[in-house]
Amino acid sequence: MDMKSLVIAEKPSVGRDIARVLGCKQGGNGYLEGKDYVVTWALGHLIELADPESYGDQWKEWKMETLPMLPERLEIQVIKKTGHQYQTVKKQMYRKDIGQIIIATDAGREGELVARWIIQKAGVKKPMKRLWISSVTDKAIRQGFSSLRDARDYQKLYEAAVARAEADWMVGLNATRALTVKHNAQLSCGRVQTPTLAIIAKREAQIKEFKPREYYGLKMKGAGVAWTWKSPQNGSSTFSGEEVKKALENAANSTAVVEEVKKKQQKSFAPQLYDLTALQQDANRIFGFSAKQTLDFMQNLYERHKVVTYPRTDSRYLTADIVETIPERLRACRAGVYAPICGRLLKTAIKANKSFVDDKKVSDHHAIIPTEQSVNLKDLEYGERRIYELVVSRFLAVLLPPCEYQQTEVTAVCQGEKFTLRGRILQQPGWQEIKDLQKEAGFSDEEEADDFAKDSAPGTEEAINGSIPDFSKGQKVLFTEGKITQGKTKPPVPFTEATLLAAMENPVKYMDSSDKKLRQTLGETGGLGTVATRADIIEKLFHSFMIEKRDKYIHLTSKGRQVLELAPQGLTSPELTAKWEQELADIAGGKAKKKDFEAEIRTYTADIVKDIQASAKTYRHDNITNKKCPQCGKLMLEVNHKNGRMLVCQDRECGYRKTLSKVTNARCPQCHKKMELVGEGENRRFTCVCGYREKLSAFEKRRKESGGGVSKKDVSRYMNKMKQEAKEPVNNAFADALAKLKL
Questions:
Q1: Which end of the chain is more exposed for a tag (fewer CB within 10 A), N or C?
Q2: Which residue numbers are catalytic?
Q3: Same structural domain for residues 521 and 428?
C-alpha cells in the first residue's frame, strides 16, 4: 500500500490552498485528497481545556467553598460546536494508508497548540513533521514542503503553549468565579485584562489631577524674519511673566549681534516595518479602525487574497533570506498610486541594511510585508484595501533613500538675551515621497501625543521650511518689534485604541514597581498580552462593559473602576505578565520546566482566591433601571457597549439582554456624525446627538431617491446582525469567563 502524508491546516481557506499546491483535488467532507497527500483542517481551535463542571458535581454550582478549582491534571475536551470537524480529522489520522502527520497550522505558539491538542485528544501515534512558513502563497507553500522540519523541534514551544493556556484557566476562572460569587455580579478579571484597566485608570487619574500652568514665549522681528527667544531656565519658554516682559523691554528697538551660524546636513530615516501592534495603531489613528477590525482585515489579506505575510508577528525586521525576494514583491504591489515608486526601485539594486534586515531580531516571524502575489485592488473591500496600502507604503518607505535636508540655525544676542532662527531646505525627499502619496490617497496621518503630563513649558521652535536670509557671524540685526506669546500646559489625552495598544505593548511607565529586572523583562517580552491577543482583550473589556467609548476616546465605566478595586492586587499590575512571559519564553527555549511553572501558578491561584474571600469590599450597581427583566423579573441594568446601548439582566444566571440603540454608519444630514438606530418594529428611527430625528422608513426612502448607499438588503442584513447579537448571553458569567480565555 502506498503511504500518504496527512496535512493539518488551521483553517479551511489555508487547507484548500495547500491542497491545490499539493495536487489534492479529490473532495471529501472536511478534507481533500491526492496521490501523496491528504489535507484536512481545524476551524481554529477544535479542542479546549475542559469546563470545571466536567470534573465532577462539586464545580457545577458556583460556590465559594468549592474554590480554588485546581484539578490534579487539566483535561482537554472537544469543542461541541465544531465536533464534526474534529471527527473528520481524527478519522483521517487513523487511516491505515496515512504514514505521517504534517502540522501546517499557523507557525506560532497558539498554532502549535491547535494541532497538538487534536493529535493528543485522538491518541494517535504516528511520525510528525512541521511546516513553518510566513506567507501562504503557492511559492511559500512549495518551499515550505521542500524543507519540512521534525515536529520534535517544536515540543518545547508546545509545552509553553499548554502552560499559558492552563495558567490562564486556573487564574482567570478562579478569580472570575470568586469575584462573581462574592459580589453576585458578573465580574471577571485576568492577568492581562485587569492590568489594562489599571493603565486606563492611571491615565484618567493623571487627567483629573492635572493642573494647567501658564507659560510665555517671545518672538522678535528682525531682518524680515521672526526670531525666537531662548529662556535661560526653560528653553524657548518660561513660566515667569516677569522674565518674558523684561526680555521684551531689553530687546525692543535694540540691535542684536549674530553669535553663531550653524549649517548641518541632516537625514531623516523611514519608520520601521510594521509588526501587528504598530499596524493596528496606525490603522486606528488614520482610519479609525479598531484593533480587532485591523486584525480581521489582515487575516483576509493573508489567507484569502494572499497578498501580505503572517499578521500575528511582533518583529519589525526581515531575515536576510527575504532580501532576494524583494524585487518579486515589488512587482506584485505595483497597483495603484505606488506604481511609479515600485518601477523606480526595480531599476536599482536593493540595499539591505541593519535598519530593517536583522536575523537576530526575528523570532518566529519577520515583519509584515507584501507577498509575491499581485492583486487587483478592486477585489479588496474598503478596509482591506486601506490596510494593504499601509503595508505596501511602509515596505516601500524602508527601501527608499533617507530624506535629506540642510538645516541652518542662527543664534543672536541682544542686550544679554539669546534668540534663535532655524530654517530647513529640502534636498532629497527620499522616503517622504510616500507621505505625499498617502496624503493624495486621503490618509489623515496626524501623530497623537501620548506622553505623561510634563510640568514644563513646550520646547524649541519649529524650523521654517525653505530658505532663510544668509547671516554671518558678527552681523548686526535691528529688532524692531516683539510679541509675547502665551499658552497653558496640557494634560495627557485619554486613550484611543491606538495609544492603548502602545501602552499595552510598553507598560513599563505604568508600573509601580522599582524592580529593574522586572521592568526590563516587560520591555523584552513585549508587554501585556501578545500581538495576537491584544485586540481580543480590548474587545472583551468593551463587551463586558468595563470600558466604553466616547467619540474616539476610551473611558472606564463604574464597573471597570470597581473591578480594579475588588481584584487582588497582583492581578492589577503588568508585572505578573512580565514574569509569566519570561518563564514561558524560557520553557519554549528549554531553559525552564513546565511543571515548575505550573506549581507556582497553583500556589498563586490559591492565594488570590483567599484574598477575594477575605475582602471586606462591596460591589454596587449604579446603572440600575426601573425596567424589569421579562425572564426573571429582576431590575435590569443599562449599559453602554462599543456600538450603542443595551439593557442586561443584573442576575448573572439569567443572561437576558435587549438592544436599545446601535451606532450605525448612516450619517446625519445636518451635522454628518454617525447616527444611532433606536426603537423596535415600525417605530425604528435614527437619532443624532445634534437633535436630528428620522424614521428608518423615511431614511430608506430618502437614500433611495438620492441614489444613496443603503439598500433594503443592507438594512435587513444589519437588523439580522442585531438580532443575532441580542441572543448572545453576554451576562452569563461562566460563558463570558470561558470565552476562550484570551486573558
A1: N
A2: 310
A3: no
